[in-house]
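Query structure, 464 tokens:
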């Protein structure tokens, strides 16, 4: 943490290349599925990892940011590495980090670069059969991009992190397209036309193979179900029926389709770099996953059982009932639009009260515009991040959108949650009300701690 805040970065892969070089290239000890995009990256990465693990593979999963504890970003076999193991890995890599610091005088290895190197090293030590690696920001110069993904996954691209990635969809897409490497399979979620054009241009330039949602694979049918949704998915090598996904919203159905295509592409022979990757691919191809269907099709029973176990903490997660309290990490207009659509579809609230704390560098009016039609009242506050917009400023923006009578300013998040629950617990015409806590990953992480929600991957309520 002494290496600076995560969001202050020096865009370059030079330090990271030097670091993995002195570490012995741990990111090449196993095949990698690399995941980028603006919205849905973490959910999609978790779904991919769950399917791979259901097939009997030992998995590594690297996601960011954390909800509760830093060590949860690095997981092996579906469980975050423990605090003791986290410290051990950090101590192992620090001497090499200092060597690279000395080489790049004036610009030290960053917080995220150290964490990424720790993940690669932990996965090599485990060892894992395959690693699912989520990009921290962008793609081209992200620290994770020293790995060459056999499968490169791009979830929906929108405007976010514009200070670092650019002010247009095209520029952001170009940064994210950087994870698509020569000979890889690029699994592309549904994109706007400008983003799709940039991504497909990168596919052509690298000689990769494109698999596009809505063309080569996608959601054929979905029904709302108790605790989630029932899906029929078309994969790259077959159709999969009667899939229960315990996550809410059309966007999560799309994430599931992308995850399925990524695992199919990986299992059916995406080129694996290095001897370790080749051996893993050989073991995978020799398994029983192809029984009962077209060549390359996964075992439908494994797909059903894998998706039925899916979790995505902080994504329309039910934190408590009586009243129902939902937690959602949406922090840009596109993400919030998907959240609002899922709430309309899956929850029958007579009245919904919001608790909102958001980073000052986000499109705050755009986020609040999406929330206004669904929230009866909103409690504005701040979270534990120094980036959090001051509650007074947030209240001023909110009053311009909601009207002053619908906005409550409560400086502390714990008091804000209490206030919102109190508003939701009013009787009479407001029976059946709920609370939505949203605006930031940090907001949701803080709320999970305050509400004592189980750690990610544990026994907490299924999220959306």
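Result returned for the query:
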């Amino acid at each position: 943490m002494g290496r600076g805040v995560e969001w202050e970065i020096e865009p370059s892969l030079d330090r990271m290349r030097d670091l993995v070089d002195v570490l012995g290239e741990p990111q090449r000890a196993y095949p990698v599925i690399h995941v980028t995009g603006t919205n849905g990256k973490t959910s999609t990465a978790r779904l991919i990892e769950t399917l791979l693990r259901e097939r009997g593979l030992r998995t590594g999963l690297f996601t960011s940011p954390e909800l509760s504890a830093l060590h949860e970003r690095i997981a092996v076999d579906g469980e975050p590495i423990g605090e003791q193991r986290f410290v051990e890995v950090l101590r192992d890599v620090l001497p090499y980090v200092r060597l690279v610091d000395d080489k790049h005088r004036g610009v030290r290895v960053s917080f995220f670069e150290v964490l990424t190197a720790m993940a690669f090293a932990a996965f090599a030590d485990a060892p894992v059969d395959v690693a699912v690696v989520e990009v921290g920001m962008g793609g081209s110069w992200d620290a994770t991009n020293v790995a060459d993904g056999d499968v490169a996954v791009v979830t929906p691209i929108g405007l976010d992190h514009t200070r670092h990635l650019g002010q247009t969809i095209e520029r952001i897409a170009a940064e994210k397209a950087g994870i698509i490497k020569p000979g890889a399979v690029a699994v592309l979620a549904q994109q706007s036309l400008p983003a799709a054009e940039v991504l497909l241009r990168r596919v052509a330039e690298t000689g990769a193979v494109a698999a596009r949602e809505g063309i080569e694979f996608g959601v054929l049918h979905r029904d709302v179900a108790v605790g989630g949704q029932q899906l029929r998915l078309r994969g790259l090598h077959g159709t999969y029926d009667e899939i229960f996904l315990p996550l809410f919203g059309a966007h999560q159905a799309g994430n599931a389709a992308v995850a399925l295509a990524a695992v199919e592409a990986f299992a059916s022979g995406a080129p694996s770099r290095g001897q370790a990757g080749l051996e893993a691919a050989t073991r995978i191809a020799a398994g029983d996953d192809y029984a009962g269907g077209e060549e390359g099709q996964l075992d439908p029973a494994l797909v059903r059982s894998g998706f039925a176990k899916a979790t995505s903490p902080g994504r329309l997660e039910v934190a408590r009932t009586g009243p129902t309290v939902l937690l959602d990490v949406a922090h840009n207009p596109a993400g919030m639009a998907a959240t609002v659509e899922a709430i309309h579809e899956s929850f029958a609230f007579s009245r919904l009260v919001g608790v909102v704390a958001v980073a000052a560098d986000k499109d705050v009016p755009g986020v609040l515009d999406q929330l206004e039609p669904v929230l009866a009242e909103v409690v504005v506050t701040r979270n534990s991040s120094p980036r959090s917009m001051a509650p007074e400023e947030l209240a001023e923006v909110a009053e311009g959108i909601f009207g002053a009578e619908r906005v409550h300013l409560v400086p502390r998040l714990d008091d804000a949650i209490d206030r919102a629950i109190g508003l939701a617990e009013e009787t009479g015409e407001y029976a059946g009300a709920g609370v939505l806590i949203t605006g930031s990953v940090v907001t949701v992480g803080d709320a999970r701690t305050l509400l004592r929600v189980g750690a990610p991957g544990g026994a907490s309520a299924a999220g959306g």
